[in-house]
Design goal:
Blueprint (H helix, E strand, L loop, with lengths): L1 H27 L5 E2 L28 E9 L5 E10 L3 H10 L8 E3 L2 E13 L7 H15 L3 H9 L10
Parallel strand pairs: 1-5
Antiparallel strand pairs: 2-3, 2-5, 4-5
Length: 170
Amino acid sequence: MKLLYASCFCLIAFSATLGAQGTIPNRFKDPEGITADPTGLHRDTTVRAFPRYPRGLQEKGITSAMVVAFVIDTTGRVELETGSFVRTSRPEFVKAVCDLLPKLRFQPFLVGDKKWRVLLVESFAFNNWPEPETAASTLAAHTQEDFSTKPIVKVVAQLVSLPHCDSPII
């Protein structure tokens, strides 16, 4: 009987591992078509989008700063399913960033005359300070630099294991 339970457990664990591995191509759709070097990528300044401070948290003085990696498609829009939290926070702040990502717009990333999907890492801070949250900004810059020096397939494999906008709230 113990052998039967152990076999069932192994089968379930193995199938869960296969299911997780199967999400890589679906979440990041053709990782080889993504560049991790956003040099020259520009935000579309005609679209002004900012995260909303979650209700009640600002009045209580609760602050947060998150670092999120996401892919910009060839039209300049964020591929929401790729939103990967490198540094996360309370679920209310995560939701605010996830609600913001589809509103962001960028100019398409061009290399020569070819449009590329590009991986971008940004920090989002929720605070009342006059200056930006430097730890998150520094982490975002270092992460972007690190991702730019690795093969994109390795970066994608690293991002898949992180919390995402479409996964259950952290």
